[in-house]
Amino acid sequence: MPLVSSKEMLQKAYAGRYAVGAFNVNNMEVVQGIMDAAKKENAPLILQVSPGARKYAGPIYLRKLVEAALEDSGLPICLHLDHGDSYEQCVAAIKDGFTSVMIDASHHSFNENVLITAEVVRYAHERGVTVEAELGRLEGVEDDIKVTAAESSYTDPSQVREFVLRTGVDSLAIAIGTSHGAFKFKGEPKLRFDILEEVERLLPDFPIVLHGASSVPPRMVSLINGNGGAIAGAKGVPEDMLRKAASMAVCKINIDSDLRLAFTGAVRESLVGNPSHFDPRQYLRPAREAISEIVRHKIINVLGCSGKA
User: Fold this and answer.
1) Phi and psi for 267 in degrees, rounded to 5?
2) 82 assigned to active site
3) Strand 130-135 relative to strand 140-142: parallel, antiparallel, unpaired?
4) Alpha-carbon torsion (163, 130, 302, 137), positive or negative
5) pLDDT digits (tens, 9 = 90+) for 98-156
6) Which one is catalytic: 82, 104, 143, 258?
7) What is the pLDDT of residue 260?
8) Sequence-ordered list of residues with C-beta below 8 angstroms from that of 96, at least 6 positions apart, any chain
């Protein structure tokens, strides 16, 4: 099965009131862990690559890993560029075989965001590639993304219809209180479901995306800290809130930090428990298994897309 765009899978997710998981990939073990879970649950999925991951692993290596995942699984897979920050970056990804790209021009003015997004949409649609854009700004730090609380802003629902009509974008990432990284909330977690409801009213049947949607399970944080780590105070989005969002207009939920936490926790536990180990396979195997476990949990209990491939 060839790579697919996100268009049909997100349309099905909207109709079925579930969400498709968009999992960030950086290396072989992460890809293998995600695919193991998806195969077991017969779930559609989006493998997404950030510009930072392309720098780290190299575009050719990442593309070949995804090709291997396709051949091994036979599942519908969309290869998505996460947070492309320019027209040129999106074009490069499309030329490299990506079937979906995100143009993130949310740090520009509304009109500039429209102009940049529309330019990417024209190029992408001529080649059968879907486009995601962002309206509103999420706080947090992840790879090259650094947005302070003062710079962040909720999505203004009154702008969404005009933005979609003027750009022709296929899906829209909105800001309702999620944030990038493992430190999402200082107080009680809260999402602005009122904004999501208004967006859904103004854009019926249109796929909405949540970024910064890892849950940062306390057990993972404890595992890392109990094995020499130092990430006290990490807090994510409660899974019941994400499940509620997936039952509404949210059709794509991005998950990255939870994968990093699962991987790191397994590696730390393995090395601390086995100080004589020096073969990377000895500690990367449990890390891969941890990725599979967390992704399978998300597919079943958060996204609701088990059996939807």
Assistant:
1) -65, -45
2) yes
3) unpaired
4) negative
5) 999 999 999 899 999 999 999 999 999 999 999 999 998 765 445 555 544 444 578 99
6) 82
7) 96
8) 59, 63
